[in-house]
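User: quick one, fold this
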Amino acid sequence: MVKLDVTVNSEQLKELLETLSAFHPEKMPGTKTAVLHGASLIREAWLGYAKGGSLPGVESLKNPQGGYARSIKKRRLGPLSYEIYSEAPIAEMLEKGTSPFDMKKTHTKGPRSRVSKEGHGYLIVPFRWGTPGTVGFRNVMAGDVLNIVRKFEKMSTERSADDAPDRDKTPNAMGKMVGRAQYSKGYGRLSGAGLADQNMAGMVRAHDEAGKNRASGYFTFRVISAKGRPGSWINPGIKARPVTQTVADITREPVSKLIETAMKGDLGI
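Assistant:
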């Protein structure tokens, strides 16, 4: 878990806290409110970054995910104490960073992997594309491409992998029998001819599970093979980013002043 506490660092505030210890916290309404507002200010600064905003000296997120922002929460520890935290794995990954790794050695051995006729593990990976002007997508299609694919017949899932009967199951790279999804026929697929970005080749208009529209959008599919070209499918890892330290640094002064002013008011100073 990654967390931030609402703390007091200045010597003047520490002296005020010592005086405050002689009082019951319920007698300090202004201070209680200021600590709450300070915690909210810290959370909002962190949330802003998680949603794609900037922090001084910290690389911004290229593909902000809603799950990261939703994971940033505020917890009351006591009358004058709050904690802002995230239990999402991505929060810790951003703080500590991750090492580069070869996806040909990792992703081709998972539960969704398949085995080729030659006995090599492989995995089909979907990439979702945003339409022009959308944010939060690593891949955004060109406007002329949207004009083509938006008219395609949708590719729908007629049977999920979990619902496949035993007779249609095949072994994955670990030897476990797993089902495969079954898709509709006759859907459109984008030709690669004339495309400025060949990564858009093969794009389909799809939704998962007929009638439920759970993952509607535009997708391309690529294959990661255990016998792929050397140097391909290398995940560069994540460079460590001091997100929480920077949030603490930029909010320390305004939060301290907020609490100091409230404490002085409650104590009649």
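User: anything notable?
Assistant: The first strand starts at residue 2 and ends at 5.
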